[in-house]
From TrEMBL, chain A:
Keyword flag Transmembrane helix: yes
Biological source species: Albidovulum inexpectatum
Highest taxon in the source lineage: Bacteria
GO MF assignments: transmembrane transporter activity
Name of the protein this chain belongs to: Xylose transport system permease protein XylH
Transmembrane feature ranges: 33-50, 62-83, 89-109, 116-136, 142-160, 217-239, 270-292, 304-337, 349-369
Pfam families found in the cross-reference section: BPD_transp_2
Cellular component, GO, one term: plasma membrane
Automatic annotation (TrEMBL), chain B:
Record domain ABC transporter: where: 10-250
Entry protein name: Monosaccharide ABC transporter ATP-binding protein (CUT2 family)
Keyword ATP-binding applies: yes
Gene source species: Albidovulum inexpectatum
Molecular-function GO terms, alphabetical: ATP binding; ATP hydrolysis activity
Lineage top rank: taxon: Bacteria
PROSITE patterns to which the protein is assigned, alphabetical: ABC_TRANSPORTER_2
Keywords: ATP-binding, Nucleotide-binding
């Protein structure tokens, strides 16, 4: 192909109708714009209305960071899957199911906690693969297939503990997890020496009474937050910088066109269902390690919260377009608003109103931005 | 360079294709040589689509022989045909509008760069090659990050053609690349076809527009109701004759006179 175009090379001219785009505009026009604007707005709002409430001291920051990190873990999974062109409505049920599985295996059956965790991960990822396999093989909308799993998994999550223990909440996981080598990876904290030092310097408050007297109020970063940031970084790099990431975009953008050039679309989609299940299980494991118990109603409605965060983050519901960073910011907005209204002393039912308004405005802005980027009409 | 110095790269002899009781192709013979544009003309339903799908490995012929580079060919899938060097650019199935030009160009064949144990997509190389290949085809992209959706229909066809050529197509099958385009866009695509021919690639150009065919074609084969009505060399046939052959002559002649001869 080296000789093509010889002698006619300078034929192409810049089309005079293509306007030059200023660097500032180019920097602004990105899929995450809605989420970035939303994040700034939310922080500005609470800095004004809740700055005196302790929302921005160490404990307050830890509080909303933890809640945001929970949203972030499932939003990252949902984001990758949505870009690959599919939904998973069974995420919430999967969270309940995974937590209950760990509880039953470790507390009721007395397995070591690490083996309960590993078996639960294997089980849930296999269920994710089953979800994906059914979607890919039948060609049914993933909406329907995973809606079925929403009920199937939730049903089992209520049925098993009731049959075995005659209750729907199983506790005692914290005692079972003592001395376990794997549990701290989900329930532990890192950076304790740094926080002790900060407390010594008087930068973090210390407890003045009780058994913990002298300890800093915040004594480390929960592994939950580490998982959230790690998963976000991993997913972002895979999506934007690798060959597999290109296949994810292609599978969601136009599966037929992708198949035609040799992209293994079915494999990509099934792997994304497995990744979503993995994220849900990480969420569940962190949660049972933190609470020390598993409940049959855990994770209710989480699938929608994940999808909302992803959509605020600029992803297209029909697939092929989106950003992990955007989804993570969407999750941050979620967490900050939910906890911030509490700090600001606002009636907590208004959380839903606020969320609806943010969702709608972010999506309208995102739709506008996307039209500019992709030339959609 | 005359294309007749070469032997045909693809030769199809007496191809018959049945779909159940329907006879889609009833003994079609066709060949194309490196460095020539062989136009396949026919009205809607003439069997053009079935014919190119047979050539590109989507359908297996019911009977008949296909030779590729002189040897009988057996393709089980379009992917096999692509690996061998037969690339098809379909009118609509070529590009993903939401993705950037670079991502589309390299889709399925992304270049990778190793960093320690990790393998990343080599965007610098991919962007450079994309810009260069598009420039050769006469399109200056604003940026390789530009989404394909922002390109015009003709430019999208050109990206698809440039992609096929860059990845080593020896035979390029173009399925009605000009049918949905405006005048200026059509001229651009036709000039791209001309460049591809000059690079020594065999081009099969499917169209139902006689003027587009005559603008770039070296040879013309007309399909009608699943049969070839014959092959003509450039200069041996007039536009009117081609048009008549395509549409079955008499009826159209009457229609045309009532429309003032502009069809």
């Amino acid at each position: 192909m080296s000789q093509a175009g010889q002698g006619t090379a300078p034929l192409a001219q810049q089309d005079e109708r293509v306007k030059q785009i200023s660097p500032l505009r180019k920097a602004l026009i990105r899929p995450e714009l809605g989420a970035i604007v939303g994040t700034v707005a939310v922080f500005a709002f609470f800095l004004v209305f809740a700055s005196g409430s302790g929302m921005f001291n160490a404990q307050g920051v830890l509080n909303w960071s933890t809640v945001s990190a929970q949203f972030m873990i499932i939003a990252v999974g949902a984001c990758m899957l949505m870009i690959a062109g599919e939904f998973d409505l069974s995420v919430g049920s999967m969270i309940g199911f995974a937590g209950m599985s760990i509880a039953i295996l470790s507390v009721t059956l007395g397995w070591p906690v690490w083996s309960a965790i590993l078996v639960t991960f294997a089980l849930c990822i296999a269920l994710g693969a089953l979800n994906g396999y059914i979607v890919v093989r039948t060609g049914l909308p993933s909406f329907i297939v995973t809606l079925a799993f929403l009920f199937i998994l939730r049903g089992f999550t209520i049925f098993f503990p009731q049959m075995i223990e005659r209750k729907t909440i199983i506790g005692g996981i914290d005692t079972a997890a003592e001395g376990d080598w794997l549990a701290p990876l989900f329930g532990g904290k890192i950076g304790e020496p740094v926080f002790l030092w900060l407390a010594d310097q008087g930068l973090i408050d210390v407890y003045t009474r009780g058994t913990q007297a002298g300890r800093p109020i915040v004594d480390g970063i929960p592994m939950l937050i580490v998982w959230a940031l790690g998963l976000m970084l991993f997913a972002h790099v895979v999506l934007t910088r690798t060959r597999f990431g290109n296949w994810i975009f292609a599978s969601g953008g136009d599966a037929q066109a992708a198949r035609y050039v040799g992209v293994p679309v079915s494999r990509v989609k099934i792997l994304m269902f497995m990744f979503t299940a993995f994220c849900a299980t990480v969420f569940a494991t962190c949660q049972v390690m933190e609470f020390g118990s598993a409940g049959a109603d855990r994770g209710l409605l989480k699938e929608f919260e994940a999808i909302i965060a992803v959509v605020i983050g600029g992803a297209l519901l029909t697939g092929g377009y989106g950003s992990v960073i955007g989804a993570a910011l969407g999750a941050l907005i979620f967490g900050v608003v939910q906890q911030g209204l509490f700090f600001a002393g606002v009636e907590s039912s208004l959380f839903r109103v606020f969320l609806g308004v943010i969702l709608l405005s972010a999506v309208i802005l995102n739709t506008y931005v996307r039209r500019i980027i992709t030339g959609e009409r | 360079m005359s294309s007749f110095d070469h032997n045909p790269i693809v030769e199809m002899k007496d191809i018959v294709k049945h779909f159940g009781p329907v006879v889609a192709l009833n003994g079609v013979s066709f060949d194309v040589r490196p460095g020539e544009v062989h136009c396949l003309l026919g009205d809607n339903g003439a069997g053009k689509s079935t014919f190119i799908k047979t050539m590109s490995g989507v359908h297996k012929p019911t009977s008949g022989e296909i030779l590729f580079e002189g040897r009988p060919m057996q393709f089980d899938s379009p992917r096999d045909a692509m690996e061998a060097g037969i690339a098809t650019v379909y009118q609509d199935l070529a590009m993903i509008p939401l993705m950037s030009v670079t991502r589309n160009f390299w889709m399925g064949r992304e270049p990778v760069r190793r960093v320690g144990p990790f393998r990343f997509m080599d965007f610098r190389h991919a962007n450079e090659v994309t810009m260069e290949e598009m420039r050769k085809m006469g399109i200056n992209l604003r940026s390789p990050d530009q989404a394909v959706g922002t390109l015009s229909g003709g430019e999208r066809q050109t990206v698809a053609i440039a992609r096929a050529v860059y990845f080593g197509a020896k035979v390029l099958i173009l399925d009605e690349p000009t049918s949905a385009l405006g005048v200026r866009q059509t001229a651009n695509v036709l000039s791209t076809i001309d460049k591809v021919r000059k690079a020594g690639i065999a081009v099969v150009f499917i169209t139902h527009n006689v003027r587009h065919a005559l603008a770039v074609g070296d040879r013309f084969t007309v399909l009608n109701r699943g049969k070839t009505l014959g092959t003509a060399q450039r200069g041996q046939i007039s536009p009117e004759e081609l048009q008549d052959m395509m549409a079955g002559g008499q009826e159209l002649a009457e229609l045309e006179s009532s429309l003032g001869g502009t069809v």
